Amino acid sequence: MKYDCIVIGAGISGLSCAAFIAKAGKKVILIERSEKPGGYFSSFEYNGYHFDSGIKAVENAGLLFPMLENFGIMDKLNFVKNRVYAGFEDKVFSMESDESLLEYFDFLGERFPESRSGIEDLLKEMEELNSFMGSLSGMSGPLYGKTTFLTKLKSIPWFLKNGKKLLGFLKKLKYNNIPFRDFLKVRIPDDELVSIIDEPFFEGTPAFFGLAYPTVFRDYFYPRGGIEQIPLELAEFIRKSGGTVLTNTEVTKILLERSSPAGVVTDTGQEIESPVIVNAADAKRLYNKLLPENSVDLDFLQRLNRAQVSDSVFSVFMGVDTAPENLDQHVEHIIYVPAAAKYCDYESPEYFKTTGMEISIPCMRDPSLAPAGKTGIILNVNTTQKAMNGWGRSVSRAEYERLKEQAADDVMANFFRLYPSLKEKIEFRIVSTPFTMEEKTLNSGGSITGWNYHPSETFPLRDFRKMKRSIDTPVRNLFQIGQWSFDPAGVPVCLITAKLAADRVLNISRT
Question: Which of 62, 157, 210, 213 has the fewest CB atoms within 10 Å distance of its CB?
């Protein structure tokens, strides 16, 4: 069968794009190599425990919920508010309000009195940026509706009310070109405090996003049943709308005719025809493995291969023989920094002994996600495939396993600083590294957000004013969406580029 469009990769971006195309009545096929759709929106079960293997909660950003409502599936997903806390040493602070955030920074000011003025400056910058971002909730989902004179008219009161904030927001866009750590070091003299504040972020994260994180965390939600419920509902919507979702199938080649897509070949040898292809998967794999040789010019290919990918994560999934209500900290999601925290390069042998972590407890959002009287806990640490001398993989599989377990021991030792009563309660642990992430997703280096966040990385498009162009590739009618299309990336970029590509596909199909 010939399709109007082939979408490669069933992560949140590929699913969203295919859903828009299917809803418009076009023939679309979404091809995914894994058993289930989801990508980094995936989950797994072990011994009755439910774990989220990718993201631990999702921000609405004025995009996700309107899109789900547009597809008529919002009511099928039972979202609960996901509260995020900041943890330092043995203390935990809510980030749900300006008052609680101030309490956290007051605590840091007492610990680091010589940095008080820098903390005050940081809070002022955060307040100005987050004031506008909080106002965005009044602009619900303009991306998904038709822009008419009436919709423009309805937006006028919002602009009149928030115009001054908008101007301040636009001025803050300059911080998209400054790493957050560099931004902090100019204002805060204590390196330890800089490391504490910078801890949640990937290397090179722009200051714009570092300053905005309180608003992002307050916009986090979690679907009962686990993160995977979102992709499962999207896949079902695509099928009911006449689209095809083909799992357990890997695209191995893209076919071109007259320098434009003609279809794909899968790992089973099947040829699927389409004049338009949307790649919602790894960009390096697209150009180096899927496209025929000489499809793009050599300079483009060299720049692509020199470009650095984003950080990955090291994860520990634990089953704990304690009920959630008996935990040392009765909160579901913590960005934790231990007392031993200090800045270390990912490749330092001390890194896993000193770094902070993200702590996520799914059954505190939905009790059904763990056996009765027990708790599943996930620990995430930012890292790369270069850590610990490449995780010893060049030496032997045994050395890789040894270093993996050593890193898990170090991370858990810091975790027990905040949860001391759990030391003897661990039933099992499952450990994954950036190599695990690459194996599961085919993302180069186990990348979590596509390209490296550092502003010096110039290959991907970074100008918000030109985001519409971010989906274009050197091959006509071949589009790139999701994490690999724009930098810095995240769920909002995935949803925006999915809609941009879907609109382009629909325009092509009309001609």
Answer: 157
Alpha carbons 97 and 247: distance in angstroms, whole number: 42
pTM confidence score = 0.92
Burial class (CB in 10 A: 0-12, 13-18, 19+), 114: exposed
Torsion sign, CA atoms 241, 53, 310, 204: positive
Is the distance from CB of 16 to CB of 234 less than 8 angstroms? yes
Q: What are phi and psi for residue 480, nearest 5 degrees?
A: -115, 125
| Residues 6 or more apart whose Cβ sits within 8 Å of residue 163 | none
Asked which of 105-119, 314-328, 459-473 is least confident by mean pLDDT, the reply is 459-473
Q: In what order do the strands lie in the sheet with 244-246?
A: 244-246, 28-31, 5-8, 277-279, 478-480
Q: Which H or E run contains 45?
A: strand 43-46
Where is 406: in which H helix or E strand? helix 397-418
Q: What sign does the dihedral 145-155-213-190 (CA atoms) show?
A: positive
- Mean pLDDT of all residues belonging to the chain: 89
Which DSSP helix (H) or strand (E) runs through 107? helix 98-111
Angle at 266 between CA 261 and CA 268, to 5 degrees: 150
Task: Extract the tokens encoding 382.
Answer: 């930012």
Residue 136 has pLDDT above 60, yes or no: no
> In the prediction, which pLDDT does 154 show?
47
C-alpha separations of 366 from 7, 42, 51 in Å: 33, 16, 12
